[in-house]
């Protein structure tokens, strides 16, 4: 009986020992087995992993894409503007062995490289690039972070600049600049409209000069428009019938006739009432 008890005890201890050497690696993980501190060559895939509890140690590595926010970094742009820029880095582990062996803490290392690279990008860029040309800056920032990360078995999926914080004085200056630009465009549009209107008026004047009857029709249209208002009064400096007579006179006679009318003839007043 004593021997049976010993055997049962040994079996129980062995079962417990074997149970501690069983781990489950999930689909998005990979397992690294270290035996006496030395990495065994095979990387354990997802599923049930068996190892010697005393001799071996299992280290799991997450292979999912990690979203890491980069704290806002303050810097001076190439055109001497102080800004604060924050970003976000998306990366994942490609080689679990290098990510664990080549760097002590790859998460902390990526964060530090991202911060220093972001400050470097701020110093190399102008304010307009940070505000309107972010795609190019994102690509440059991704290359700067990806170079050291490749040696750690890390792949940088993409880097995005989130926000650019400007000083209040710069915001007010940009607001005044935008307002001045809008006012300039409004004046240009108004001037273009006046130029086009003057060109049309000049064309109309040439047409009326070639067709004397058109001037008479335009005068009648003006009388009708004035008559549309109640108690409207239209004052003519000379009778309308003189227009045809004046058209047939030579240029010198027209001048003398104008002077004579100005001294002697009273203004002819026509009243249109409803």
Automatic annotation (TrEMBL):
InterPro entries from the UniProt entry: Band-7_stomatin-like, Band_7, Band_7/SPFH_dom_sf, Stomatin_HflK_fam
Domain Band as annotated: residue spans: 20-178
Pfam families listed in its UniProt record: Band_7 (PF01145)
Similarity field: Belongs to the band 7/mec-2 family.
Assigned GO CC terms: plasma membrane; side of membrane
Transmembrane segments: none
Name this protein carries in UniProt: Peptidase
CDD domains: SPFH_eoslipins_u1
């Amino acid at each position: 009986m004593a021997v049976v008890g010993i055997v049962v005890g040994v079996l129980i201890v062995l079962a417990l020992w074997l149970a501690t050497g069983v781990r489950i690696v999930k689909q998005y993980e990979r397992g690294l087995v270290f035996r006496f501190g030395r990495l065994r060559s095979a990387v354990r895939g997802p599923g049930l992993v068996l190892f010697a509890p005393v001799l071996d140690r299992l280290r799991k590595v997450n292979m999912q894409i990690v979203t890491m926010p980069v704290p806002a970094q303050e810097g001076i742009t190439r055109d001497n503007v102080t800004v604060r820029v924050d970003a976000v880095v998306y990366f994942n582990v490609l080689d679990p062995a290098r990510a664990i062996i080549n760097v002590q803490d790859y998460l902390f290392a990526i964060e530090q490289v991202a911060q220093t690279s972001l400050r470097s990008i701020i110093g190399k860029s102008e304010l307009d690039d940070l505000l309107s040309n972010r795609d190019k800056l994102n690509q440059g920032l991704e290359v700067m972070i990806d170079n050291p990360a490749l040696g750690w078995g890390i792949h940088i999926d993409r880097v995005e600049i989130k926000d650019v914080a400007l000083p209040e004085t710069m915001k007010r200056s940009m607001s005044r600049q935008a307002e001045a630009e809008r006012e300039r465009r409004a004046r240009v549009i108004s001037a273009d409209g006046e130029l086009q209107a003057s060109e049309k008026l000049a064309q109309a004047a040439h047409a009326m000069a070639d067709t004397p009857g058109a001037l008479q029709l335009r005068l009648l249209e003006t009388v009708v428009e004035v008559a549309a208002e109640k108690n409207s009064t239209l004052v003519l400096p000379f009778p309308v019938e003189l227009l045809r007579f004046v058209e047939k006179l030579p240029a010198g006679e027209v001048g003398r006739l104008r002077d004579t009318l100005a001294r002697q003839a009273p203004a002819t007043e026509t009243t249109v009432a409803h």
